[in-house]
Amino acid sequence: MLNLFRITSILEGISYLSLFAVTMPLKYLADIPMPNKYAGYAHGVLFIAYILIAAIFWFQKKWSLKRGFILVIASLLPFATFYVDEKYLKPLKSGNAST
């Protein structure tokens, strides 16, 4: 479950940044809307997957409300899913963090 959450977290972050940095400028500055449509679909699926997996993981690990809130809010902020991976998920993989 941890590996799935880490991969989903990173992919969701990449899809979010690709929307802002690549496909939205293509859509609004170069009048090329198609990449934005497909990146948007991908981001939507990854966003929903991230939220569902975060909720499952939060309850499974019995983490505090604060930590659960951070997991959910991270999906709304650019680069925040990378922070969650580095701060909360990666240490679990190496066994250096408390559950």
Structure report:
With about 100 residues, the chain is mainly α. The protein is built from 4 helices and no strands. It has helices at about 1-30, 35-60, 65-75, 80-95. The radius of gyration is 15 Å and the shape is elongated. The model has no long low-confidence stretch (mean pLDDT about 90).
**Uncertain segments of ≥5 residues (pLDDT<50)?**
none
- Form type: elongated
- How widely separated are the two ends? 14 Å
Number of helices: 4
The domain tally reads 1
Q: Name the structural class.
A: mainly alpha
| Percent of sequence in beta strands | under 5%
Main beta sheet strand tally, sense and closure: none
- Radius of gyration, in Å, reads 15 Å
Share of residues in helices: over 70%
SSE string, helix = H, strand = E? HHHH
Overall average residue pLDDT: 90
Subcellular location: Cell membrane
Protein name: DUF3817 domain-containing protein
InterPro entries: DUF3817_TM
GO cellular component, one term: plasma membrane
Ordered list of secondary-structure elements with their pairings:
Blueprint: H1 2-29, H2 34-61, H3 65-74, H4 80-94
Helix pairs in contact: 1-2, 1-4, 2-3, 3-4
Keywords: Cell membrane, Membrane, Transmembrane, Transmembrane helix
Organism: Maribacter algarum (ex Zhang et al. 2020)
Pfam families: DUF3817
